[in-house]
Specification:
The chain is of the alpha+beta class. The protein has a single domain, classed as 2-Layer Sandwich (Metal Transport, Frataxin, Chain A). Helices cover about 35% and strands about 30% of the residues. The strands form 2 sheets. A 3-stranded antiparallel β-sheet has the order 2-3-4. A hairpin with a 2-residue loop joins β3 and β4.
Length: about 70
């Protein structure tokens, strides 16, 4: 999975009905239904491993293939 910009990921999450719960420093907590994920926003892009973790964490709520 290639890197994606943080703003682009947030836009995709909002389109899927996710909401920003709170922010602690450079960590943004996002909730989609009963699933919660932590986005690290101190860089311009989300690293591939971090993006894979976010994808897997939110799959139960957003379904498989919610991000490509």
């Amino acid at each position: 999975m290639k890197p994606i910009k943080v703003k682009e990921l947030l836009k995709i999450l909002r389109q899927h009905g996710c909401e920003e719960v709170r922010q602690e420093g450079s960590h943004l907590i996002v909730r989609c239904g009963r699933c919660t994920a932590v986005l690290v926003i101190h860089g311009k892009e989300v690293a591939p491993g971090t993006l894979r973790n976010i994808r897997e964490t939110l799959e139960p709520c957003l379904g498989k293939g919610w991000i490509k």
